Amino acid sequence: MTSCSEPLTASTLGEHLDLQRRRVEDALAAYLPRPEADPSAGRPERLASAMRYSVLGGGKRLRPVLCLMAAEACGGSWEAAIPAACALELVHTYSLIHDDLPAMDDDDLRRGRPTCHKAYDEATAILAGDGLLTLAFELIAKGVSPDSSALACVRILAEASGPDGMVGGQMADLQAEHRALDQHEEGSLAELEAIHRRKTGALLKAPLQMGAAIARASDSHREALERYGKAVGLAFQIIDDLLDVEGDETKLGKRVGKDSGHGKWTYPRFLGVEGSRTRARQLAHEAVAALAPLEARGERLRDLALALLERDS
Amino acid sequence: MTSCSEPLTASTLGEHLDLQRRRVEDALAAYLPRPEADPSAGRPERLASAMRYSVLGGGKRLRPVLCLMAAEACGGSWEAAIPAACALELVHTYSLIHDDLPAMDDDDLRRGRPTCHKAYDEATAILAGDGLLTLAFELIAKGVSPDSSALACVRILAEASGPDGMVGGQMADLQAEHRALDQHEEGSLAELEAIHRRKTGALLKAPLQMGAAIARASDSHREALERYGKAVGLAFQIIDDLLDVEGDETKLGKRVGKDSGHGKWTYPRFLGVEGSRTRARQLAHEAVAALAPLEARGERLRDLALALLERDS
């Protein structure tokens, strides 16, 4: 086998994703070092521990991997995209910690392990989340260059995860849950999509935008990746809803059937299982089509969009 | 009175601070518009309302005012510093919302009104805080120029408010409170200062650093402002502790005597009231001395350091 970057046979998508995930895991571990035993150090040990527990406890790393892949698809390097990719995962993790809190979704289990507030305590979980969100922006400011790309990443991530994005979507989701439970309100597909677009979609589109910014992609390539991200984000959520109906609890690492028990609005509820699967398939093909301008460089992302349809966890 | 920037008589410090505060209030209100009645808009109405309630409900605006003053002291303009100044206030406000939560300090009153989770609900308060923290970085990314100054501000704010700064300090404070209450541990002045440096000091030093960055100050001026910020931050906290012992509840807008009731570590506890007042006075004079390199432009900040000694709220 040659020692340069041209393997004799192309890796499969699975192998490629494993490679990208390893890069992300190594970087995350480096950004969250083990706590010092010294209590006078800047970061209290328990806080550092809780942050590590939540971030390094597994996860698909879909958002950072999308960011690395987007950068490479635009001719950039994964190394240049690593700080931004990790920032995305820190933001995603903080959102899970806060969503799991008693006052919010009140979950004891996440990825098959006790949630942060159960493993530590609620105050530590609130602060660990706050710390991770803040650290995400620090990583970008210190790690992305040039300045214009770094600022673009700060803007994209802040807009995607803020009160008009992810946080707004979580608020809307909680409100919808109350309306479904307490008022037996039917809801509509349009409302459900408005929630998903913000609660999960924004942080699945942001990686593509950030990867493009880091690779200093052309407007045409950036727009292609945005369209891809929007379609893939929605498809991902539909599959998520389908897995909750049909999925294997062991593989998912969380209880299934939770959604229907709560009267929660989901895609299957509005479109049925088959209708939902059809919609997801449509979106995956939209995503593939969107990447035409990227030509051969878009291949991995195209394969990924189709692979998401087959996920079982 | 002439219509240019040279008044016939110089305004007093009080008038100057009022002017700076008005600039900040106007900008904050513009950054947090009234919620749209349209439920499909990006930001849910209740979330927007809670964010406004917490930010626009009053406050000394010390951090943003320090930022504006630092920029002007380095020959920059307050207009250029406004987005960063407001970002500081959003971060300060988010920290208060989260600190007040039941799992944290569990406070019902703040600035004489119900805390965010009491006025709304706990989930909304958690998300309002998250939203404000995220929005702070958005404001900087979009409002500060050039890019190098904007990135410097992102870095400074993230470091000051993150797990090695404010969040770490809050964690350390909660842990110290448990040790004081449950284990009747005496603590030490060194430990108390390590908590204050992070919990409150970092976000009082950051405004000076950010103002300097925006004004593209020389290293000498930047360092002078950092020394000032560090000294003033500590003096501020000592005065805070003293007000809790000696202060007027109506003026403060919160209960007094809370600290001693909790066995909380404070400056008076370690240095006595007189010793604390002396230490605060020393620090205020250190702050004044630190600004020598700024010459005449440092006058307002020097006056402010001395004025902080006299505060009663």
UniProtKB/TrEMBL annotation, chains A, B:
Keyword Magnesium carried by entry: yes
Has keyword Electron transport?
Answer: no
Q: Which cofactor does it need?
A: Mg(2+)
Q: Which GO terms describe its molecular function?
A: (2E,6E)-farnesyl diphosphate synthase activity; metal ion binding
List the EC numbers from the record.
2.5.1.10
Kindly list the biological process annotations in GO that this record carries. terpenoid biosynthetic process
| Alphabetically ordered keywords of this record | Isoprene biosynthesis, Magnesium, Metal-binding, Transferase
Q: Which GO terms describe its cellular component?
A: cytoplasm
Mind telling me which InterPro entries this protein's record contains?
Answer: Isoprenoid_synthase_dom_sf, Polyprenyl_synt, Polyprenyl_synt_CS, Prenyl_diphosphate_synthase
Family listed:
Belongs to the FPP/GGPP synthase family.
User: Under what name is this protein listed?
Assistant: Farnesyl diphosphate synthase
